[in-house]
Specification:
CATH class: Mainly Beta
CATH superfamily: TolB, C-terminal domain
Number of helices: 1
Radius of gyration: 18 Å
Structural class: mainly beta
Number of strands: 25
Order of helices and strands: HEEEEEEEEEEEEEEEEEEEEEEEEE
Largest sheet: 5 strands, antiparallel
Length: 376
């Protein structure tokens, strides 16, 4: 099922035009944003809780193109917990406009998925949306919110109407935790982390089985995406189960050029996998890009497309850390103080929109928020 591919040529046409278009959409819609949070520069956009009561927003992406029920400039948010706050049981993806209008984009029932998803549905931070209208989300499900019942899950492929049309499961997919995508239209490359390789069996002890997988998809014009290849490009990342966080392991991933940055949470660092788009074997945990300093359990990670800076959210506090392309931590901002201790365990997905600011989810208040740094 899994096949290795020779190095591919990377195509970037249209990317700059897409950023300009998205910035225009956000600048126009953002004028309607209302209530300002208590932290300077932070604005609450909307609740992420749907009618079924799902909580714990994790994944966050910006819709790049209007197609079907998807609207360019809107944000999609995946929920990890159900209404009882049981981890690994959330089933909804929210569609939120920059003015705060919120609707359910997708809701899943594990019994009616088009193909298997081992363990069921528990939507993670692994979330991507492609310009062709396909949405892919990771599932790391549990039976009762406890890590002992966590299972491998899958990637769920959703069409632009919000309907699940297929799942990718088995083989190299084992607890998909976070994801980013290189979108080239008729072909897309997903980069996702796995956190269940030996983790549950270790019963809270640290194991070094966390992986980063590159999945190349063909996107036919009139058919659902097809897997062309899967390759483990990162391995040996520390991971363990946790009574509060369910599991801790390699989390946020973001691509800049051909370098993939990975939030190596347990080792309190961000690592870099060079030539991530073309390597044909694992680079291990890569090279250390930035470590310690203001980092404190790095979780969410993205790259600011206008500066190349790497933006990281902390799991132990409400910190947002800005790291320049040389690995220097150049800025630390408090963007969240919910929970106890303040800001702990609340920040996950984030995305930077040039000219607008940094959108992030807060699973302490179950909201989507916008941070506009001083001077922006």
């Amino acid at each position: 099922m899994v096949k290795m591919k020779l190095p591919r040529r990377r195509v970037e046409k249209g990317f700059c035009a897409l950023l300009v278009a998205l910035a225009s959409v956000f600048a126009t819609a953002g004028a309607g944003i209302a209530a300002t949070a208590s932290i300077s520069g932070v604005t609450t956009i909307a609740s992420t809780v749907p009618a079924n009561g799902d909580v714990n927003p994790y994944g966050l992406v910006v819709v790049p193109a209007t197609i079907g029920n998807l609207t360019a400039g809107h944000l999609l948010v995946s929920n990890f917990n159900d209404s009882q706050n049981l981890q690994g049981t959330g089933t909804t993806i929210m569609d939120i406009a920059p003015d705060g209008t919120a609707n359910v984009f997708s809701q899943f029932n594990s019994n009616t998925l088009p193909s298997p998803c081992p363990g069921g549905v528990g939507l993670t931070t692994a979330l991507a949306v492609l310009q062709t209208g396909w949405v892919i989300v990771g599932s790391l499900p549990t039976v009762n919110g406890m890590s002992a019942t966590a299972q491998a899950g899958c990637l769920i492929v959703i069409n632009s109407s919000g309907k699940a049309v297929e799942t990718f499961y088995g083989s190299l997919i084992n607890g998909p935790w976070d994801m980013t995508a290189l979108d080239e239209g008729s072909q897309a490359t997903l980069f996702f982390t796995n956190v269940l390789n030996g983790t549950v069996a270790a019963n809270g002890n640290v194991v070094h089985g966390g992986t980063v997988v590159r999945m190349v998809l063909n996107i036919p014009a009139n058919s659902k995406p097809q897997i062309e290849s899967m390759t483990v490009i990162g391995s040996g990342f520390s991971e363990r189960t946790d009574p509060a966080a369910l599991v801790i392991g390699p989390t946020g991933v973001a691509l800049s050029g051909t370098t993939l940055y990975v939030a190596d949470s347990l080792n309190n660092r961000v690592t870099a996998l060079a030539n991530a788009t073309t390597i044909t074997s694992t680079a291990g945990t890569g090279s250390v890009f930035s470590k310690n300093g203001f980092l404190s359990d790095p979780l969410g990670l993205t790259v600011d497309p206008s500066t190349g800076n790497v933006l990281v959210t902390n799991g132990n506090n409400g910190g947002l850390i800005t790291i320049d392309p040389s690995g220097n931590q150049i800025q630390h901002n408090l963007i969240d103080n919910t929970g106890s201790p303040a800001g702990a365990g609340t920040l996950f997905g984030l995305v930077s929109v040039p000219g607008v600011g940094i959108y992030f989810v807060d699973d302490g208040s179950n909201t989507l928020n916008l941070f506009q740094p001083p001077g922006d």
